[in-house]
Amino acid sequence: MIVGVLSRRGLAAAVFVSGIAFAGPASAECRLCEDREPVFADRAPDRPLSITIENGLDFDRLAVGGDSGGVVDLDPGTGHRQLNGDLVDLGGFAVRGTAVLRGDPGRTVRVDLPSRVTLYTVEGEAVELANLESDLPALPQLDGNGQLRFSFGGRLHVRGRSSGNFRGRIRISAEYQ
Question: 55 CB contacts (<8 Å, ≥6 apart)?
Fold first, then answer.
């Protein structure tokens, strides 16, 4: 699903171009089309792309109520947390991760999240964070100020009776397209 915001002018232009495309016979030449290079093709960026993590993922306080562990899903769009299995909610407030990309205004970017990350306690216990997702549109683009803010979440797999304060690093990579 591509999400975007069109100004009134952008919407009018889109409708106008669509109307012209269908107005003439199929073999007519497009008078609006030119063989132009895309604006950013093969152009080095003016500003390097940077990423700042504003909030890390926090699944908050949970307890294992049995021997089989469970799964916690944290939705990147809504921040809603859902528990499955033998996990018990001890209250608190789960937080989806948020990040900001900064670079050349209007540039399209590609953002990659890892498929899985292992989180550890200082005692060496481990849980797995998988199915990392963001709320980015299909073609993410920096805004007119050269920024793009997005959220991310995932699925935490707790095996057995694991306990502790689990920590780890999620490597998010981004590059201009």
Answer: 95, 96, 97, 98
Does residue 7 lie within any of the structural domains? no
**Could you report the per-residue pLDDT of 26-62, keeping only the tens digit for each?**
334 444 444 444 455 456 778 999 999 999 999 989 8
Six token digits for residue 142: 């920096």
Query: What is the DSSP-derived secondary structure letter of residue 58?
Result: B
- The residues pairing with 134 across neighbouring beta strands, listed in sequence order, are 152
CA angle 50, 116, 97 (to 5 degrees): 45
The answer to whether position 12 is within a domain reads: no
> Is residue 135 domain-resident?
yes
Is residue 20 situated within a structural domain?
Answer: no
Whole-prediction pTM: 0.71
* Model confidence pLDDT, tens digit, residues 72-116: 999 999 999 999 999 999 988 899 999 999 999 999 999 999 999
